[in-house]
Amino acid sequence: MEWLDRQWVDTVLEALTAFFLVAGSLITFISSFGMVHLRDFYLRMHGPAKATTLGVGLVLFASSLYFILIERTFHIQLILVTIFLLITAPISAHLLAKAALHRKLPSTPDTRGAPGELKPEDTAREPDTPHPEHPGGTAPQRPEQPQ
Amino acid sequence: MINRILPRPILSLILAVVWIMLSDAISWGSVILGTLLGIVIPLLTRRLWDTRPEVKKPLLLLRYTIRVLVDILIANLQVAWLIARPWKRPRPAFVEYRLKLRRDFSITLLASTISLTPGTISANLRLDKRTLLIHVLDVTDIDALIEDIYQRYERPLLEIYE
Fold first, then answer.
1. Number of separate domains in chain A
2. What pTM was estimated for this model as a whole?
3. Residue numbers in A near B86 (CB within 8 A)
4. Is A116 a member of any domain?
5. Using CA of residue B78, residue B79, residue B82, residue B84, what is the dihedral sign?
6. How far is A141 from chain B (nearest CA, A)?
C-alpha cells in the first residue's frame, strides 16, 4: 500500500506545480496580448509593468515548489529573482513613461486629464543641428532599394 | 573610522548576504568576495545616496509591506482581466497627485508602490517634487482614486518615515 500512497502524493504535487506554471504562463500571455491590442504607449506600458510580475512570480513559485517537494532541495535564488523583479519593474516602467512624456508621444483621445508634459511647447523649437557634410539641408536620404 | 570604511553597515551586510545567496553554496570564496563587494559598492555609490532613511515605526512598515504584496496580487489579476476583454475599452486618465511626502526616499517608495499596484503607473515626478503624474489604465472616479492612494499608501509612509 505504501507505494500507492507515495505515487498519489506525487501526482497531486505535480498537478499543483503544473497549475502554477500554466497560470503564470497564461497571465504572461494576456499581458503580451495587451501589447498588441491596447491603443497607446501609456496603456501598453501597464501590461509588462504588472501582469508580467505576477506571471513570472507564479512560474518561479511553481519552480520552487518543484524543487522543494520533488527534488527535496531549496534554491534561495528563486526568492532573490522575485525580489529583484519587484524592485526593478516599477523603475523601468517609470523611466519608460518619462521617456514617452519627454518625446510627447500622443495618448488616446479618450484619456482624461492633459498633463503639461504633453502640451506643445510655447517656445520655438530649436533648429535641427546641420549635418556636418551637408550643411545646407537635412541628412541625405537613403537611396531607394530596388524592388 | 568605522564610518569611513562602512558608511552604510546594513547595506554592506545585505550586499554580502545576497552575494553569498546568489552563489550556490557557502564557500570561502563567496564569503570573501561578498564581503569585498559589501565594502566596495557602498563606497563607490556613496555620493548617490540620500540621507539615511530612518524607520520610525517598524511594525507599520511590516504591515505596509504585506498590504502592498497583497495589492500587487490583486492588481495583476485586475489588469490581466482588463486586458483580456477587448470588447470593453478601458477608460484611461492622467492624474496629478499632490505629494505630502517630502523626502526623496519615501517619495521613491510611494512611486514604486503606485507603479506596482492597481492599474496605475507613476509617469513623472515634477522637478519641484510636489506633484507626481500618474497614468491610470481604467478609472471612473479620479478623486476617489487620489483619496485611495493617500489613505492606503501615502499616509502609512508619512507615519513610517517622516
1. 1
2. 0.70
3. 37
4. no
5. negative
6. 36
